[in-house]
């Protein structure tokens, strides 16, 4: 029953629409930020229901600029889950602030509002909420905590393009929100990211700082009628998106609803397939959200995770782990140590979690095969 070809953990869904648009972009001779970026930003703002959408070259850059735009820096503490990709935390260091790790809720694997409350000090200035796997964090509780304590709430929505919280798109809840279009994400531009906000000052800061700190619309200086004159208002960065990337993004965004529907079908098939397998547990989804299903995390309740990954690999199935808790990495252990008991849920979940393949181009027979292999492996008489 073993399949011959390796089934990769993830695969982007690009077709002739993206190929044609990228080709037309290359043929136009305009390769850097230009009209295609503007078009992508406009459609992204419309889709998410936000006033401003600013494209950058990664979600990491989006998060970094978001922290700076909100004035975070030395002396400030930022509350952040350890159960995330390292860049969510790295950018806090880049901004000169101090990351304070927060544990997750066992049922949702999202940042635990109760633990957020416990970790607030006089120096706390912001919370970064990650929408893990595409499941929105508890924005009601987090917003209340933020308002009460005068904190900035920033959303890491790297997994959550298309997710909704209480009927409203992620991005439209009044916070600065950062999205990723990295190759493995729900929609992709190869590398890319977006900042959404309703605040014109934040938008202005991001627009300027993504392109050297030059007064806005600097990219137009090479167009006819564009001015060679510009001013530098701050020492900015270089993290704008290019038209070649946006050419993909424009079409990916149009396909997003279809992608999410197909992802949901696959997730439903997995849920049914594992329903009677006591060795695996999937996660509860609250009623008031739409999950983008960026990831399908499986909790191996009584089976060795590392061995499971090796065995899946032997059966030609790619898997991954989201995430190695950031506080466990050498740099963070040495510079921002936390007590084990302080990250109890994160540490426990990390030992058991594995992500199964989940992407629109998976065939039904791929899904059936994975379910069969997972159930066979985990219910064998060896632990
Ligand atoms: C992928 C990811 C990022 C970083 O996205 P890039 O676009 O690769 O910079 C940030 N946060 C989370 C939770 C991610 O999964």
Overview of this structure, please?
By secondary structure, the protein is α/β, with parallel strands linked by helices. 38% of the residues lie in helices and 14% in strands. The chain has 12 helices and 13 strands. The strands form 3 sheets. The chain has a 7-stranded mixed beta sheet with strand order 1-9-8-5-4-2-3, with helices on both faces. β4, α6 and β5 (152-156) form a beta-alpha-beta unit. The longest helix has 32 residues, at 243-274. It is globular and about 75 Å long. It binds pyridoxal-5'-phosphate. Pyridoxal-5'-phosphate binds at residues 58-60, 84-85, 87-88, 130, 156, 158-159, 180, 182, 193.
Beta fraction: 5-15%
Mean pLDDT: 95
Give the overall silhouette. Answer: globular
**For the largest beta sheet, what order do the strands appear in spatially?**
1-9-8-5-4-2-3
What kind of oligomer do you see? single chain
Rg over CA atoms: 21 Å
Which structural class should the secondary elements be placed in? alpha/beta
Structure annotation, total helices: 12
Main sheet record: 7 strands, mixed
**Bound ions, cofactors and other small molecules, one mention each:** pyridoxal-5'-phosphate
User: Helicity range of the residues?
Assistant: 25-40%
Give the H and E element order: HHEHEHEHEHEEEEEHHEEEHHHEH
């Amino acid at each position: 029953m073993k399949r011959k070809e390796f089934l990769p953990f993830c695969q982007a869904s690009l077709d002739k629409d993206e190929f044609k648009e990228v080709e037309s972009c290359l043929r136009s001779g305009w390769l850097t930020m230009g009209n295609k970026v503007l078009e992508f930003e406009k459609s992204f703002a419309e889709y998410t229901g936000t006033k401003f959408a600013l494209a950058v070259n990664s979600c990491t850059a989006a998060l970094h600029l978001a922290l700076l735009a909100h004035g975070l820096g030395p002396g400030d503490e930022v509350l952040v889950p350890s159960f995330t990709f390292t860049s969510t935390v790295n950018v806090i260091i880049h901004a000169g602030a101090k990351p304070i790790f927060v544990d997750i809720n066992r049922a949702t694997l999202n940042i635990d509002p109760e633990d957020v409350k416990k970790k607030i000090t006089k120096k706390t200035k912001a919370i970064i909420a990650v929408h893990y796997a595409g499941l929105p964090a508890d924005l009601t509780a987090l917003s209340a905590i933020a308002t009460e304590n005068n904190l900035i709430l920033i959303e890491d929505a790297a997994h959550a393009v298309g997710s909704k919280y209480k009927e409203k798109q992620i991005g439209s809840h009044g916070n600065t929100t950062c999205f990723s279009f990295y190759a493995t994400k729900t929609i992709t531009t190869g590398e890319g990211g977006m900042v959404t906000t309703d605040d014109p000052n934040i938008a202005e800061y991001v627009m300027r700082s993504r392109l050297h700190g030059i007064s806005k619309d600097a990219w137009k200086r090479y167009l006819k009628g564009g001015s060679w004159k510009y001013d530098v208002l701050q020492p900015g960065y270089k993290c704008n998106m290019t038209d070649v990337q946006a050419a993909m993004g424009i079409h990916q965004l149009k396909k997003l609803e279809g992608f999410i529907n197909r992802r949901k079908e696959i997730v439903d098939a997995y849920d049914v397939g594992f329903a009677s397998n006591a060795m695996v547990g999937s996660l509860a989804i609250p009623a008031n959200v739409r999950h983008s299903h960026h990831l399908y995390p499986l909790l191996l309740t009584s089976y060795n995770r590392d061995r499971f990954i090796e065995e899946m690999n032997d059966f030609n199935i790619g898997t991954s782990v989201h995430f190695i808790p950031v506080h466990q990495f050498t740099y963070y252990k040495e510079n921002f140590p936390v007590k084990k008991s302080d990250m109890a849920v994160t540490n426990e979940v990390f030992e058991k979690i594995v992500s199964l393949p989940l992407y629109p181009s998976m065939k039904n027979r791929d899904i059936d095969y994975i379910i069969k292999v997972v159930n066979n492996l985990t219910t064998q008489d060896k632990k």
